[in-house]
Write a structure and sequence with these properties.
The complex is a heterodimer of chains A (about 325) and B (about 210). Helices cover about 60% and strands about 5% of the residues of chain A. With about 325 residues, chain A is mainly alpha-helical. Chain A folds into 2 domains: about 10-55, no CATH class; about 75-325, Fumarate Reductase Cytochrome B subunit (Up-down Bundle), CATH 1.20.950.20. A two-stranded antiparallel ribbon of chain A has the order 1-2. In chain A, strands 3-4 form a two-stranded antiparallel sheet. Chain B is of the alpha+beta class and about 210 residues long. The longest helix of chain B has 15 residues, at about 165-180. The chains are: A mainly alpha (about 325), B alpha+beta (about 210). Chains A and B meet through helix 2, strand 2, helix 3, helix 4 and helix 5 of A and strand 2, strand 3, helix 2, helix 3 and helix 6 of B.
Chain lengths: ~325, ~210
């Protein structure tokens, strides 16, 4: 649309082009001289005031803060839409949607009982280090989720309740806590990776678990696909937390040192990535908490006291149970050999 | 009531930085903060133009929309101000602002930001006009004294103008008509292209879009 080689007289008509509605602002176009020509405005109304501006305009600044060389960034409009609507819809929608699905599932299935009842014999499932890693990650995740949600939803939900004067300190503390608690989260995340990675490598048996949905919908019970230490569902949670958590960590720390590695466009994208991962992880963790507490009898013991009932272990993780039996980790039973 | 706006005539700006200096001096702006800055486009090439840019005091300010603590207010003159008592320095307004107006003092080596600072159209802040607290937080309140922003008053070529938008538009169009060309008012379609909210807003007011 724009001519590549401008004859001299065309240079004089830049102002006219603006009137014709070219998207690019004329003040950014290459031009040697401007002088009145035959197409100059003849009335004041012909002088353009509002020149459509759809592209980022970048120039040079003589101050040290180079990011201020961006004169106009229309992308801020999309970021605003993300921040005020999309982000809230993503986090709120996924969290509420997940809760609704779980509520319906709970009405359908109730607490999944241990089919054979409790045997009373305990099997060691997670030792102290395992549980320390889990709860470090879990508590810091929940704290960060809560503080993040306060900052995201506080304006529409909390300010009408507690007022501006009270919300600002709450938001300020939320921001600091959100930043500092990321450190134990990373520690826990690294421990989890070190402790459980080898038990979470996908294997052939996982397909069977996924095809039968882990027996979640077979009310009869006792139809559990065989699983090792972790079944495919748990592996899914593991990889969500590990990959999602690493993504959140990377994007989060980049936001703590704003503009250190990227410009305004990059910062906006990092913020979107952080928000999308947060929405996904919060929903995943709601599901994880459900099945680990009211969703399944005996499941909480694994991370609570570290020992699970023998019948629970046999029903849900038979292959792992047999390993534990061989190693002599089952209370009151001698190793097989 | 006047609708206060800035208009920078890129055909006239000579990149002397007087507006930048005047602003820094008038408001005792700390190091590292630039309420107003000069951006040079096509630097060293044919068609080089310089534009003085600060907060444009938009009709529908994106900063106010994204603020998590709802600290912005707009005066009846259309000037967008903010409360440093409410601001938590999160930096969201910088991501949303089309003009890069919000600035943050760096308070620690870990990049944590202090309260946001930006052009006030020389209108101070929510504190009582001319009070010491207002000056310490936001700088001088020239508007309350019946004066226009110093950057525009200082401009030797009258490239940068501040005042009632209708008057500025009239001056600019008259000027462009006489010289025979005009390249539009930089940033006006972005800042004032959207409909005015119609009513000034403040924290808790209906204009801020929620709360």
């Amino acid at each position: 649309m724009r001519p590549t080689i401008l004859p001299l007289h065309a240079l004089l008509l830049i102002a006219l082009l603006a009137v014709q509605g070219l998207a690019a602002p004329t003040f950014a176009q290459a031009q040697l001289y401007q002088a009145p020509g035959q197409n100059s405005p003849t009335t004041k109304e012909q002088v353009p005031l509002y020149v459509p501006q759809d592209d980022k305009v970048i120039g040079r600044v003589s101050i040290p803060d180079e990011k201020l060389g961006v004169l106009v960034q229309p992308e801020g409009r999309e970021w605003r839409e993300w921040r005020t609507n999309t982000l809230r819809l993503a986090i709120g929608g996924l969290a509420i949607g997940m809760t609704a699905v779980l509520a319906i599932f709970f009405l359908y299935r109730g607490t999944i009982r241990i089919h054979g009842g409790k045997s009373g014999r305990l099997v060691l499932r997670f030792n102290g280090l395992d549980r320390f890693a889990h709860w470090t990650t879990a508590v810091s995740f929940l704290v960060m989720a809560l503080t993040g949600v306060i900052l995201t939803f506080g304006r529409p939900l909390l300010i009408p309740l507690i007022g501006h004067q009270a919300f600002t300190p709450l938001a300020e503390y939320s921001k600091s806590i959100h930043n500092f608690v990321s450190v134990p989260f990373v520690v826990g995340l690294l421990m989890i990776i070190g402790l459980w990675l080898r038990d979470n490598i996908p294997e052939k048996a996982d397909w069977l678990w996924i095809r039968t949905a882990g027996g979640l919908f077979s009310k009869a019970g006792g139809r559990h696909p065989e699983a090792g230490r972790f079944n495919a569902g748990q592996k899914l949670v593991f990889w969500s937390i590990v990959l999602g958590g690493m993504g959140m960590t990377a994007s989060g720390y980049l936001m703590m040192v704003p503009f250190a590695f990227t410009g305004i466009g990059g910062m906006q994208i990092i913020h979107v990535v952080h928000g999308l991962l947060a929405a996904g992880l919060i929903a995943a963790v709601i599901g994880h908490i459900y099945i680990g507490t009211i969703g399944m009898e005996g499941a909480f013991d694994a991370m609570g006291c570290g020992e699970v009932d023998e019948n629970w272990a046999m029903e849900h993780h038979r292959r792992w149970y047999e390993e534990q039996l061989r190693k002599g980790y089952v209370e009151g039973r001698q190793p097989a050999e | 009531m006047a609708r206060m706006k800035f208009l920078c005539d890129a055909e006239r700006c000579i990149e002397c930085n007087a507006c930048v200096t005047a602003c820094k001096n008038e408001h005792e702006v700390p190091w590292g903060i630039n309420r107003r800055r000069l951006v040079t486009l096509n630097d060293g090439k044919p068609g080089e133009r310089s534009i003085s840019m600060a907060c444009m005091h938009c009709n529908d300010p994106p900063c106010a929309a994204v603020c998590p603590v709802d600290c912005f207010l707009q005066t009846a003159d259309g000037v967008v101000l903010h409360s440093k008592d409410l601001c938590i320095g999160c930096g969201y307004c910088f991501y949303a602002c089309p003009f890069g107006a919000p600035q943050y003092p760096r308070t620690t080596d870990f990049g944590s930001r202090g309260k946001m600072d930006k052009c006030t159209f020389c209108a101070g802040g929510p504190e009582p006009d001319g009070s010491v607290e207002e000056y310490q937080k936001y700088g001088a309140n020239r508007l309350a004294e019946g004066k226009l922003p110093l950057c525009a008053e200082m401009c030797s070529t009258r490239a940068l103008m501040a005042g009632d938008g209708a008057v500025l538009a009239d001056i600019y169009q008259e000027r462009s008509l006489r010289r025979g060309y005009g390249s539009g008012a930089p940033g006006w379609s972005t800042a004032y292209g959207r409909n005015d909210r119609g009513s000034p807003f403040a924290p808790g007011g209906p204009g801020t879009g929620g709360a």
